[in-house]
Amino acid sequence: MRLRFAPSPTGALHIGGVRTALYNYLLAKKHGGTFILRIEDTDQTRYVPGAEAYIKEALEWFGLLPDEGPGYGGAHGPYRQSERKERYQEYTAQLVESGHAYYAFDTSDELAAAREKDPNFKYDAGARRQMKNSLSLPEEEVKRLLSEGGGHVIRLKVPENETIVFQDKIRGQVAFDSNELDDKVLLKADGMPTYHLANVVDDRLMEVTHVIRGEEWLSSTAHHVLLYRAFGWEGQMPAFAHLPLILRPDGKGKLSKRDGARFGFPVFPLSWQGETEEDSFTGFREYGFLPEAAINFLALLGWNPGTEQEIFSLEELVEAFSVERINKSGTRFDIDKAKWFNQQYIIKADTDYLLEKVKPVIAAHGYEPGDDFLRGFIELMRERAVTLGEFWENGYFFFEEPRDYDPKMVRKRWDSGRKALFDELAGQLEGLDNFTADSIKARTEAFIQEKGLKFGEVLPMLRLGVAGTMQGPALFEMMELLGRAEVARRLRKAFHQFNELI
Ligand code: GLU
User: Fold this and answer.
1) Do the strands 153-156 and 163-168 form a parallel or antiparallel pair, or are they unpaired?
2) Predicted local distance difference test score (pLDDT) of residue 48
3) Strand 185-187's sheet: what is its strand order?
4) Is 52 exposed, middle or buried (0-12, 13-18, 19+ CB in 10 A)?
């Protein structure tokens, strides 16, 4: 089995494209096949520098490594269509020779005039007879025009009155009336192929056996079937599977790249800096997703395992995946579900793996603590972080000491007459033999009893003093990690400030 992901480098790769890549990858790997990356860059006008690098970086981040592709090796290269120009020209010439394609000399003005006359103009069998091409013009005229080299395209000669039928692995039988199809341009005036020609020729030359792609390509498949036929390759036509749409969270239409900004969540794998603000996007990676969680989420965005299981590693997905279980209708993009997956993965991730992911998040705020401290931090915080960014947002006080304290909280719980008592507790904690959560807890509880205090009068003040907020992980564990000197210093400073706040 040979499957390919064939993006056009026209900008950042939308998350739907990643899902397409994933399904191709899964099916290939499930059957011990080959996953190919092919860059479809024949449309020079839409080429965006950096897009190919972005696509590769995204696939690599997700762990969807191509077996063949530009920079990945393989015996069917080159894998960039712009480097395969001669092949397309040879194959189109072959089609002209066999009568399945023809030269068309119409200028853009002439085509525009035809469209002006008939807004539904289609270069089809009827139009073909009226327009300027090698089927309508006398042979001499065709020769002259070709030798003049004034620019011509090559078009596919779509047969009349035929029903083109193919089996789609997801939709079942699909049929198109050939009279509805236009004579697609195969080779442009600049000698570059169009998508249809290059895509079919390459799928054949790269021996692709299965094509999984977005449903927007379904209607093109009719032309592709005709091309396979015209080349005499019908017997080697790949199996087609057209994926359902990814829908907006409200279910109203297709998820677009603008919806990310509109709804405030990522719809791209990695951040992308476009030329304008509107064309720049935050990625899943930068939003704080683990790649495994994003993959798990994407896998279930259009496929279901047929069981209750939700958490799948990439290996488990390879095992469980099948085209038969791809949904027929669109699936809503539910960011809360994506976050839920992320949380599950953060909770069970290997600590050292998380360490590498959390370190840059903390470093971005100017802190570079030692690994042991960070490991302890991760263990205390992982249940409270839905994204990697939340390790900072919910745990910044591990790195910077509180600057202020909620005055309402202080006024409610603090009794200025007790400052000396609290300072005494701080001193006792500082003097502990072992500054561990257990001994801090034991000493604090004993102190509360000895002095006839209540837990509710003491513990919140310790928490507020240490963290500056009432939110946070287990108090005594947090104190142990911060360490004796830091805790003592923070508490003394806090008790002093509490008195001033009252
Ligand atoms: N280059 C097309 C794209 O950008 C490929 C479609 C296909 O897989 O045939 O999606």
Assistant:
1) unpaired
2) 92
3) 101-104, 153-156, 185-187
4) buried
Residue 258 lies in a domain: no
This prediction's pTM: 0.93
Tokens of 397: 């006080």
In a domain, 186, yes or no: yes
pLDDT tens string 193-208: 999 999 999 999 999 9
Tokens for 401, please give them. 């000491």
> CA-to-CA distance for 310 and 22, rounded, in angstroms?
17
Residue ranges of the chain with per-residue pLDDT less than 70: none
User: Can you say how many angstroms the Cα of residue 376 is from the centroid of all Cα atoms in its chain?
Assistant: 31
Cis peptide before 78 (omega within 30 of 0): yes
Which of 195, 197, 201, 220 has most ligand 1 atoms within 8 Å of CB, for mutation? 195
Atom of ligand 1 nearest to the CA of 20: 8
Reading the block at residue 268, the tokens are 């791209």
Question: How many domains, the chain?
Answer: 2
CATH number at residue 185: 3.90.800.10
Which of 187, 218, 243 delimits the end of a domain? 243
Q: What is the CATH number of the domain that holds 466?
A: 1.10.10.350
Examine the fold and report which residue of 218, 243, 268 is the final residue of a domain before the chain moves on: 243
At 80-90, the pLDDT tens digits run: 999 999 999 99
Give the burial class of 306: count Cβ atoms within 10 A of its Cβ; 0-12 exposed, 13-18 middle, 19 or more buried: exposed
Encode burial over 184-220: b for 16+ CB neighbours within 10 A, e otherwise: bbbbbeeebbbbbbbbbbbbbebebbbbbbbbebbeb
Kindly report the protein residue whose alpha carbon is nearest to atom 5 of ligand 1: 6
What was the pLDDT predicted at 349? 98
- Report which of 332, 342, 345, 303 is spatially closest to residue 20, judged by C-alpha positions: 303
pLDDT value at residue 258: 86
Active site residues: 257
**Rounded to an integer, what distance in angstroms lies between the CA atom of residue 188 and that of residue 193?**
6
Ligand 1 center to 40 CA (angstroms):
7
Q: Is residue 248 part of a domain?
A: no
Q: Domain range for residue 492?
A: 401-501
Give the number of C-alpha atoms closer than 13 A to the C-alpha of residue 121, restricted to the C-beta side: 15
Q: Are 123 and 183 in contact (CB under 8 A)?
A: yes
- Is residue 348 domain-resident? no
Nearest CA to ligand 1 atom 3: 7
Q: What pLDDT is attached to residue 502?
A: 83
Tell me the C-alpha to C-alpha distance, in Å, between residue 68 and each of 2, 3, 42, 63, 432: 10, 10, 19, 14, 62
Rg of the chain over Cα atoms, rounded to whole angstroms, equals 32
